[in-house]
Amino acid sequence: MASRSAAELEHMSEVRKSGFADRAKPLEYLEISASCLGQSYPQHCPHLATTETNSPEACDPLGEPMSIRQVARLLGCSPWTVRQRHMPSGLPYFRNGNSGKLIFYRSQVVNWVLEQQKKGGKRK
Question: Does residue 103 form part of some domain?
Fold first, then answer.
């Protein structure tokens, strides 16, 4: 392998692979000024403290997806009771496909239970 001359090495150090020069351009050349960085009205932006106090339902209104066994555990009954008693009574669920898996969403299940408690536990 042939060694490179000092002139070739010097030329290679001046030109990058991208073709741009080594020296950085000042902000004025890039048409970026310090005044356009940041926000003009930071009081209009949400603060971390307010987003932390919001409920997780605000980010995900359905809640986490749950299986029928998880719902049964949450309600304190068997999966059979969930399927035969609570689903016909209006427990919200989503069926994935025609004969697919039943999917329940935690927030919907909790809201349904709260509604049932307000009614006095009476079934339709």
Answer: yes
The sign of the CA dihedral 55, 56, 57, 63 is negative
Q: What is the CATH number of the domain that holds 99?
A: 1.10.10
For 87, the domain range is 58-118
Residues 6+ apart with CB under 8 A from 21: 14, 15
Burial status of residue 85 (CB atoms within 10 A of its CB: 0-12, 13-18, 19 or more): middle
The answer to whether residue 10 sits within a structural domain is no
The mean predicted confidence, pLDDT, of the chain is 74
65 touches 103 (CB < 8 A): yes
Does residue 65 contact residue 104 with C-beta atoms inside 8 Å? yes
For the entire predicted model, the pTM comes to 0.50
Work out how many domains the chain is built from and give that number.
1
Residue 60 predicted with pLDDT over 60: yes
